[in-house]
Design brief:
Blueprint lengths: L2 E3 L6 E3 L14 H55 L2 H9 L7 H18 L3 H10 L6 H37 L6 E3 L5 E5 L6 H13 L4 H8 L8 E4 L3 E8 L3 E8 L2
Antiparallel strand pairs: 1-2, 3-4, 4-7, 5-6, 6-7
Helix pairs in contact: 1-2, 2-3, 3-4, 4-5
Length: 261
């Protein structure tokens, strides 16, 4: 090995070196090529690392968006359902309808909401919720039971309305009595006209007016006026009323009107 002078700085260096150790001047292109290869290799590694990082970021984004967030929302919806906030749970599961068993959870929420209404005897809303639950659990049998309850309720309400109408009619007939001998029971279902004697014509007129007001046959009044003391108590039953009467010369004609259901 011998010493040579660097063309750049003029200092002595080995003739086997590729780069001046004093100023960095390249004496041989072998170093340049080696450095280039190293740079390219380094750049390639960086590119690979960047690509891997991008893939990881993209994968993480999709995992966050498609898995983590839906799972988080799903668990929150399940918690909401278990707390009994059915309306909110339905909305939350509907927003992720195709995730896991969200559709079944929607049906479950409607069913449990129906049970809540049923326990509160809100049968109409209960039936609506069971119908919306798409056959979840025993929804169909619940609907059948509710239909029976509502039918019985309807019949009862109709019967009560009809009964009230009869009471109103009897009360109106009572108010039309002028003889002073008419008495209406406290529940409004019975009306009695107690004549003072056989010459109590005002009471007779009241009896006739009540028969007319109640829509009873006109022949009933004729039948009453033909009754004598020997005939005892007479009774005539109709669809809505029962009429009983008796006659005595000293007491006159006493008539008892009663509502029957």
């Amino acid at each position: 090995m011998s010493l040579i002078k660097c063309p750049e700085c003029g200092k002595e260096i080995s003739d086997t070196t590729d780069v001046c150790i004093h100023c960095g001047y390249v004496l041989n292109d072998r170093y340049t090529k080696s450095e280039e290869k190293h740079r390219i290799k380094k750049s390639s590694v960086i590119v690979v690392i960047v690509v891997i990082l991008i893939v990881i970021l993209i994968g993480g984004f999709f995992y966050y968006k498609k898995v983590f967030i839906p799972n988080k929302n799903y668990n929150k919806a399940v918690e909401t359902l278990e707390k009994g906030d059915y309306d909110s749970a339905i909305i939350m599961f509907t927003m992720m309808e195709d995730f896991k068993d969200s559709r079944e959870k929607i049906d479950e929420a409607h069913y449990k909401k129906g049970i809540m209404y049923l326990n509160g005897k809100d049968y109409e809303n209960a039936r609506t919720e069971f119908s919306t639950s798409n056959g979840y659990s025993d929804s169909k049998s619940q609907i059948e039971s509710i239909n029976k309850i509502l039918e019985e309720k309807r019949k009862k309400e109709e019967a009560e309305a009809a009964h009230k109408a009869l009471i109103d009619t009897l009360q109106k007939a009572y108010k039309g009595c002028l003889g002073g001998q008419a008495k209406l029971s406290s529940d409004g279902t019975e009306l009695m006209i107690d004549s003072t004697n056989q010459y109590d014509y005002l009471s007779l007129l009241d009896i006739q007016s009540v028969v007319t007001a109640l829509g009873l046959p006109s022949t009933l009044f004729d039948q009453m006026t033909r009754t004598n003391a020997l005939m005892g108590k007479q009774t005539q039953k109709y669809e809505k009323y029962e009429v009983s009467w008796s006659y005595h010369p000293n007491n006159g004609l006493d008539v008892f009107f009663k509502i029957v259901d």
